[in-house]
Amino acid sequence: MDRGRRIGSCDPRFSEVYDFLVDEATLLDNNHLEEWAQLLAEDLVYRIPVRRILSRGQGPPFDPVMAHLDDDHAAMTTRIRRLRSKAAWVEDPPSIVRRLLTNVRVTAAESPSEVWVQSYVLALRSQWTKAQFDIISMERQDLLRRKADSFEIARRTVYVDQSSLETSNLPLFF
Amino acid sequence: MTTEHAGPSHGPGAILPDGTAVASLIDVERREVSLRLLWDPDVYRAEQRWLFGRCWNILGHESELPQPGDFVVRQIAGDAVIVSRDRDGDLHVVLNMCRHRGMEVCRSESGNVSSFVCPFHGWRYGLDGHLIGLPYQKELFGPECDRRTLGLRRARVETYAGIVFANWDPSAPALKDYLGDFCWYLDLIFNRSRSGVECVGAPQRWVVRSNWKLPSEQFIGGDAYHFTSVHRSLVELRTQDGDQRGLAEALRGALHGMSVSSPLGHGMRANRRRPGGSGILAGPSTMEASPDVDPRTWFKDVPPRGVPPELVDELFERLTPGQLTALVTYPPGPGGIFPNCGFNHANLRVHVPLGPDRFEMLNFVLVERDAPASFKEKIRKDMLYGFGTSGVAEQDDVEIWCSLQARASGYRGGQETVSYRSSLEVSPPPWWPGPEQVRVGYTREDAAWAFWLRYRDYLAGQVDQVGQRTAGGS
């Protein structure tokens, strides 16, 4: 990380970012996808690259091209429209997801209107009457941009902690 | 239809602990399959020996291993194997297990090495699996110890269009005979240009809580029927976006087409292109795709999916006139290679069994190697959007497999049977140039049933060295 100067937790800008992330997670956890989509920038790049388990010195752990999801704004909003259609079986009934958000680090970006944000998310997914939860553990790296009195998400990369995901499909956003 | 498969058996094949023959769980007369095949751990054990121990298993693509020393670790029904390229450029597949005490000799999933060293006692193996280093050999094992007999367990390796297959069975047919005439169709997707296809990055992998046969049968069966319900949301979106045909017509269009099935268990679906579109699967066209159309003219208007305009000329070098006609009239749709591979255009996947009720999806995106970078990028994005972990089509497919698996695991549900009775006569168009059993019309369950018959052959031990049925084959 450390793309620029650290913005510590005592800095008021940190609180603004933190509140934004918590509000955002709340929208997603409550399945308010249309409202969440309002937070996405027009030039959004949202990626979940594929992790590889490599020996030390054998290259970066994330594949540079292959991803579990790689969307722009148009693709993301179409995904949401589809999930709202009558026959999107995967989320009907909807998964119950809890996004536990922690380890937030904020650093300055090149543009004064933007900040880089690293956060850890532990997503617990409960689906229909299944006894067990799917656990999706990840680090996120976001580029947030000032918009009015809040932010919009210009870039989000989700670095998952498994090379083979233990969830049967991924209709969720993080 | 059924008599051709009901010949005498050469033996009982796989028998479960309660005396049931696995093959008997497929009722050939009634075209029914017992759901016991989905949940029973003993069936899975039988499949490991009788099926995955004898068939050709897809492990990856050659382009994942461009350099000497490159390797990937993959699985064949519970066994980890190393696929590697040696100094001479040859591919090898070996069991990832030290011949000394059974430890893994490779613990990462890909990379580049000069040898594999077992962490337990330091035995060292070359890229071809031969034992090349045995620490304290003289002192511990004596001078007569022959390292040549202590290599890693090897599988046979062959490739088709760069796709790497491995087989544990020394008496199994060659890959060419295993794929048989179905290559005529596979060539239309994977073997149609000078440089062929390459793999985009590392495959997606994720674990699905269902039996591996549910997706496999569906791909091989080219199940267009499910499209009208499972993927209805995609058609709804298109209708909202101004597709004037309306929902009912679009759904109906998806149902009508061609199914191809091989007696060797492979299968595919194809939809005909018609003006105004013959359904979401084939896409719209401005011309009637008749066999009289000149392919050169046609491909100018509608290049085959995955082929950039720059590579269209190469189609005419690589494919026969008959294959070109097929590519114009009924371009390939979803299909599968027996037993556990599915494909859909640039997307190739293996449903790797992890037990009776779990499999790992190993999902590759394959693109034309010589296509412009921007074209490859578009294919990659399209595929990730539609298929794979987060694919808007695949999300709903997975839901069906998991829900069905959960119910098949019940006591009463697990004894039920499911049927494949919807059948159509073999009916290729009179001008159809391709091999295999070809049926044209509304989608039926014949190709899926062909999967089960081939599965039955293997579990009954009725597969001989040329890969044909040993008894009652057609």
The percentage of residues in β strands of chain A lies in: 35-45%
Q: Oligomerization state of this entry?
A: heterodimer
Instruction: Detail the poorly predicted runs of chain A.
Output: none
Q: Give the number of DSSP strands of chain B.
A: 22
pLDDT < 50 stretches of chain B = 1-9, 277-281
According to DSSP, the number of beta strands of chain A is 7
From the N-terminal CA to the C-terminal CA of chain A, the straight-line distance is 19 Å
Q: Looking at the structure, what is the overall shape of chain B?
A: globular
> What is the CATH topology descriptor of chain A?
Nuclear Transport Factor 2, Chain: A
CATH architecture of chain A: Roll
Return Rg of chain B in Å: 23 Å
| Order of secondary-structure elements of chain A | EHHEEHEEEE
Provide mean pLDDT of chain A, rounded.
Answer: 95
**Pair of chains with the largest interface and how many residues each contributes:** A-B, 39 and 45 residues
Q: How are the strands ordered across the major sheet of chain A?
A: 1-4-5-6-7-2-3
Largest sheet of chain B: 9 strands, antiparallel
SS-based class of chain B: alpha+beta
Approximately how much beta-strand content do the residues of chain B carry?
15-25%
Q: In whole angstroms, how far apart are the ends of chain B? A: 10 Å
Question: If helices are DSSP runs of H or I spanning 4 or more residues, what is the number of helices of chain B?
Answer: 15
